[in-house]
Structures are given as C-alpha cells and as structure tokens.
Amino acid sequence: MKSFLKIQMRYGLMAAGIALLLVVLNITFFLGYMLRYGERGITHTYFRMAEITDSLVKEADGYHMPGESMATVEKEFVWAMLLDGEGNVVWSWELPEKLKKKYSIQDVAAFAKWYLEDYPVKTYVHPDGIAVYGEAKGSTWKTRLELPEQVIAYFPQGVWGLFLVNLILALGLAALLGYRLFRSLRPLAEGIEQMEEKEPTDLEETGPLKELAARINRTSRELASQHAVLQKKDTARTTWIAGVSHDIRTPLSLVLGYASQLEESPHLTEEEHRQAEVIRMQSLKIRQLVSDLNLASKLEYEMQPLSVEDIRMAGLLRKIATEFMNQSKGGDLEILVQIPEEARNLKVQGDRKLLERAVGNVIQNSIRHSGKNGKCRIEVQLKDMEQQCQIVITDNGPGFPEEVLRRQGDQQMEVGNSHGLGLKIVQQIARAHGGEMVLANGDMGGRVTIEIRRQ
Questions:
Q1: In this predicted model, what pLDDT tens digit does every residue of 130-155 receive, in sequence order?
Q2: pTM beyond cutoff 0.90
Q3: SS3 of 143, please?
Q4: Which of 51, 151, 315, 412 qualifies as a FRET site for 436, CA 20 to 30 Å off?
Q5: Which pairs count as long-range contacts for 171-176, CB under 8 Å and 24+ apart, including other chains?
Q6: What angle do CA 95, 100, 104 make, to 5 degrees?
C-alpha cells in the first residue's frame, strides 16, 4: 500500500502542478495580450500620438505634417483632423464627408473618450486646439473602467490572495482526484497481492476499472486451476517414486544377496562367477538410481532436512578423493586435490552427507565418461571467495554436450541423458546450500564448479 500512497502523492502533485502551470500560462497570455493589443491605444495616446501631434505645425499656407509622421498616421488611422479653440476644423486628412466641420464643447466631450459617428477616436492636445484621430469602424472596443484608489492600493495583495486561493483549490482537487484513483486501484492491488500469495481473488467488477477487475478475476481462476493440476501431478509423481522405491527394495535386496552367494560359490565356473558379479554390480546401480530418485524428489520439494554442521572443506575433499582412489583398479584413475594455503582452514556450514554426495556425483560422472578414453585424470580445486567457497572439478573427458550447457540454469534440469540425474542432484544440493552449480567445457575436458555459501 505504500507504493499506492506514493502514486497518490505523485498524482496529486502532478495535477496541482499542471493546474498552477495553466493558471500561470493563462495569466501570462492575458497580460501579454493586453500589453500587445490593449496597450496599443495607450502607447499611441501618450507616446506616438504626442510625437505626431507635435510635428503638426502651422505655416503661411496652413498646417503641415512631416512625411514620417504622416506615414504613421496613414498606417494607424483612417482619418485625422485638428480643431481650434472654437471647435472649427482647421486641418484634416481623409476626413469623411458626413463629419461636421465645427464641433461644440458638448460634441468634443461626447466623442473624446468614445466614438464619433461609429469611428473609434483618440484625441491629443495641440498648442492650437485638439487633434482627433479616427480608427476604422469596428477596430477598437471601448469600455469605461473606474476603480477606487483603495482598490488599486490593495491590488498586489489581491493578486497574491487570488494566487493562494487557486493554489489551495488546485491542491484540493488534486487530492480529491488522487484519493478517488487510490480507492479505485486499492482493490486491484489487494487482488494482485492475493494472486502473488497463491490465494483466490474475487474482486467486485464495478466502476471504471471493472474490465481490469474482471481480467484479474479470470487470471486468478486460471492460475488456481493450473496450480491445482500441477500440485496433483507433483503429488502423484512423489507418491509414485516413493511407492516404487519401497516396492523395489525387498526384491532388489534378494537379488543382491543371491548374486553375492553365487559370486562366492566354489561350484560355479569362472564365467558363471563373472556373470554373478555383473548381476550384483547392476543391482547396485539400480539401488543407487532408486536412491537418487528419492533424494532428487525430496530436494525438489524441500522435504530433505539439512543436518547443518561446521565442515572443513579441505578434509572433506581429501576424504572423497581417497575413497575413490581406493576403489579404483589397475591405476586407471588419478585424482589431484589442490588446496591453496588460504583455503586450508576454510569452513562452511552445511550438510556433510549431501556435500559428499554432490562432489562424489561429479567425480563419478567424470569417471564414467573420461574412463572410456583411457586413464581418467581429475583435478579438484578449492577456492576461498569473499562470501562463498568454490569447488572446481575438471577432467580429461569429452566435456558436456551443448544441450546440457544450454539447460544448466533451468529450475527443472533435463534428466533424459547420461549426465542428467547425477548433475540434477548436484544442482539441488548446491541451491540448498545457497549456491549454484556451473557447467563449462575447458581445454582438456569438462569443468564443474560447485558454489556454496559460507554463512
């Protein structure tokens, strides 16, 4: 829910910022518009009109206006005239025929701030009278604005007050919209959290987000159905493996017992002794395979409890290598254990039997594949890393197939090949100890790295 509170705050601040930005832009536009067009009359009245009016001078043959000032008049106005003190027109330019040639004080008072025959006019005092400039009809809208002095005095405070009111309203509206958005999204967030915890979700499909709620409900039902099917399959597989392991244990023990007796019987020929030995060895492989299946199933579903203890890794690796060397025949196996000085006293917390099983599986895998090419040479290295230790096992075999290397990171490692089940158990044991198994091909053969978390 904290994330949704952050969303609400961000949404509210963004909405308020947008509202304030719009207010500022509108004020700026309004002021710019007024300065560009509204101040046009003021500018003419107090600046340019003063300049052009002062340039109108009386000469022997009448009044004349210089060319530059006249060009400005022709550009800005449609007619112009000069009234003397008695209201007579003493100078004019493009004066419409329907306009009078003499005006009383009442006439001047009437059109000075407004219109003359629908012409918007502007006036300016001339030394000899009043200059009147007419604009095109419909070009200027005039209004009368009078404000008390007190209003003008408090205008800055009023602007700031209006700004604060707008700010409060914007924040209030943003908070309201954000809260409504939060209320709409909160049930969806709770539904997603329930789906994450593998609980059924039944959201109310109403409001503007009803389609999204309906999709979440459908997805929840589909996930629940799939989970039930997978759980049923996993339960069936686990039960089947356990049942097969139990059912095969007794007949397998009988086969091993009779095979051992036949192997030691003095009444059989040499060939029959060899056949009995083959039966016993293959039965041992079957027993090991059943044990591997049970262990893989328990590790996969976290049913194998870890017997954690402090383990000195150098001693564990030397013990495993010695056992394999003692079991080898004819000098066809060479295992070199390399323990650097800094790793001799390296200890980890883990399950001794499982770690022995992991290293043993890798060495057994190397023997099974490298032994086909003559003498099997295996190197076991122990590396002390900052937060983990690494056991690196290399051999002189043919290496790993590309399919195995490509699928090594899968949660469910492929077991349908000669490397599969043994390496799958190694992977599971490494992950049970907070590490990982990494496969690679080196210059001379395969390389397996078992990572184990130190703490």
A1: 999 999 998 888 877 776 787 678 77
A2: no
A3: coil
A4: 315
A5: 171/12, 171/16, 173/15, 173/19, 174/11, 174/12, 174/13, 174/14, 174/15, 174/16, 174/19, 175/12
A6: 125
